[in-house]
């Protein structure tokens, strides 16, 4: 996907600025009932460049009614093969519109264009293709019970119903589509609520859903703020399930909002994921991977490796290596081809990250590299923070305990190879999303992998990312349930036991 692209960026910009992106409800684009809009800001410049409809409770009510109508009107009875075909068609349409979607994602979120192409468009298409395969493979079991008489018993997996999908701004398009993909495979209908910071690619998706031929109301998209549209969706009495990705604080709000009708809830929340580097690790791989594990997407990644634990025999070398990478990282607008790290998504996130760095300093941490803002050429007004490494960090400090969601690494050392001690340090967190282990000793790696309280453990892993086949989710306050893989599709089903008495 190396761009030389002859895509007409000026035409896209003109189009985005000329037309406020509307809500997609019941197969039609409509303005928000209130007529209100969201100003969409390019985080590389701080300039607003587009508007999107700010949907509220009334719009959510309309969208849920449309989703209910589609659910009751036969979407779950559509043959699995037909659902799969529609999903494959949508994947093709997304790829056919890859440039438009990727440039829009970069303008909206700030991520490097290459990442938008692979992390947004490519990942979304692959989620659809993978989950299209599941549509025809969702099965129950047959079970022989021990109660008296002769019985044929079986389980059915049926779609949970109308799904509310609430997604964040860090990988807006990929996350929206991955939730849609699993829900559609299971036979659910959906109301999608994108993040207010990044509404555009989801808003563009409506057109492609229409073109793919999905029946009206199967997918509805309501852009809007969390406190209005998001809260209304989470509390809606006719929504059967909410799938949420975002902060742990709002995840808890979602649970509270779900109690009215006890809707099902899955949560993919924050993290404070450890990267553990043993003394025998292959540092030529471990160092760049640890660096990109925290600086990739400017650290705005739920699974970012934000706590480093390196053996004291390699600690200095690891910190120097990561710091050198930080210094050489090309920070800039996501639109310029050499950019490796873009801005943070908003002024609010920039302030938040800077205040964490400041709090680290006041609690006794040292800045090994970075620590402030930076203004790349042509990006005056952008929300950039330098890739930063903090040393002298210890548990109890805010920077070690809390999710920063920026390019800030807390580097810590360990003295001996006692796996239980290392696991204890790595597990000393309210979160438990991801983790990464570097060692040439397979026994150490596997022992530690078994002890880590994390939904995902990666051993000696270079590159990669979210794969639609691999379950993703967290222990502890990193969430409830799993996305991706079989578990991810089954999370959109109810399990029903049917027992047939044979006399
Ligand atoms: P957030 O949790 O407020 O936003 C995520 C989504 O939830 C957005 O679509 C938002 O509109 C919606 N939302 C907000 N309030 C809601 C409510 N009361 N009811 C229903 N939906 C609601 O996250 P925010 O404030 O944008 O970011 C703050 C921090 O959250 C970040 O610094 C980071 O630590 C964490 N975060 C984690 C993410 C992850 O991937 N796990 C993604 C985004 C943020
Ligand atoms: Mg934006």
TrEMBL record:
Any idea which UniProt keywords this protein has?
Oxidoreductase
Q: Please give one Gene Ontology molecular function term for this protein.
A: oxidoreductase activity, acting on the aldehyde or oxo group of donors, NAD or NADP as acceptor
Record domain Aldehyde dehydrogenase: where: 30-498
One Pfam family of this protein, by short name?
Aldedh
Q: Where is the active site?
A: 268
- Family per record: Belongs to the aldehyde dehydrogenase family.
The protein, known as: Aldehyde dehydrogenase family protein
**Source organism of this protein record:** Altericroceibacterium endophyticum
């Amino acid at each position: 996907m190396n761009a030389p692209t002859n895509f007409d960026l000026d035409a896209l910009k003109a189009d985005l600025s000329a037309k406020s992106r509307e809500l997609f409800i019941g197969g039609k684009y409509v303005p928000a009932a209130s007529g209100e809009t969201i100003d969409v800001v390019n985080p590389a410049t701080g300039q607003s460049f587009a508007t999107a409809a700010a949907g509220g409770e009334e719009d959510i009510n309309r969208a849920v009614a449309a989703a209910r109508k589609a659910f009751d009107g036969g979407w779950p009875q559509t043959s699995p093969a037909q659902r799969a075909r529609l999903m494959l068609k949508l994947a093709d349409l997304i790829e056919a519109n890859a440039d438009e979607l990727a440039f829009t994602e970069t303008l909206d979120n700030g991520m490097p264009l290459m990442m938008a192409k692979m992390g947004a468009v490519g990942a979304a298409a692959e989620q659809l293709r993978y989950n299209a395969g599941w549509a025809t493979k969702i099965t129950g079991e047959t079970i022989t019970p021990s109660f008296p008489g002769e019985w044929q018993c079986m389980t059915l997996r049926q779609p949970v119903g109308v799904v509310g999908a609430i997604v964040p701004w860090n990988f807006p398009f990929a996350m929206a589509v991955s939730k849609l993909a699993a829900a559609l495979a299971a036979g659910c209908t959906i109301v999608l609520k994108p993040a207010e910071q990044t509404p555009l690619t989801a808003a563009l998706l409506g057109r492609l859903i229409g073109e793919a031929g999905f029946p009206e109301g199967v997918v509805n998209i309501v852009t809007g703020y969390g406190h209005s549209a998001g809260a209304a969706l989470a509390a809606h009495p006719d929504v059967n399930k909410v799938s949420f990705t975002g902060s742990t604080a709002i995840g808890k709000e979602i649970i509270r909002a779900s109690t009215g009708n006890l809707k099902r809830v899955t949560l993919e929340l924050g993290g404070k994921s450890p990267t553990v580097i043993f003394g025998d690790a292959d540092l030529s791989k471990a160092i760049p991977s640890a660096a990109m594990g925290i600086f990739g997407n400017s650290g705005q990644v739920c699974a970012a490796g934000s706590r480093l634990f390196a053996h004291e025999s390699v600690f200095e070398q690891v910190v120097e290596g990561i710091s050198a990478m930080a210094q050489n990282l090309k920070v800039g607008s996501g639109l310029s081809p050499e950019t490796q790290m873009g801005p943070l998504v908003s002024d609010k996130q920039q302030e938040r990250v800077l205040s964490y760095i400041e709090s680290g300093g006041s609690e006794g941490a040292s800045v090994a590299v970075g620590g402030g803002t930076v203004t790349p050429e042509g990006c005056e007004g952008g929300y950039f923070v330098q890739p930063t490494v903090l040393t002298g960090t210890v548990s109890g400090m805010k920077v070690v305990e809390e999710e920063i969601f920026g390019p800030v690494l807390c580097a810590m050392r360990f003295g001996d190879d006692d796996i239980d001690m290392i696991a204890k340090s790595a597990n000393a967190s309210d979160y438990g999303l991801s983790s990464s282990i570097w060692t040439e000793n397979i026994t150490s790696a596997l022992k530690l992998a078994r002890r880590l309280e994390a939904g995902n453990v990666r051993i000696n892993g270079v590159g990669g990312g979210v794969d639609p086949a691999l379950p993703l989710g967290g222990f502890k306050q990193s969430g409830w349930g799993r996305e991706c893989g079989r578990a991810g599709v089954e999370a959109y089903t109810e399990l029903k036991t049917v027992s047939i008495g044979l006399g």
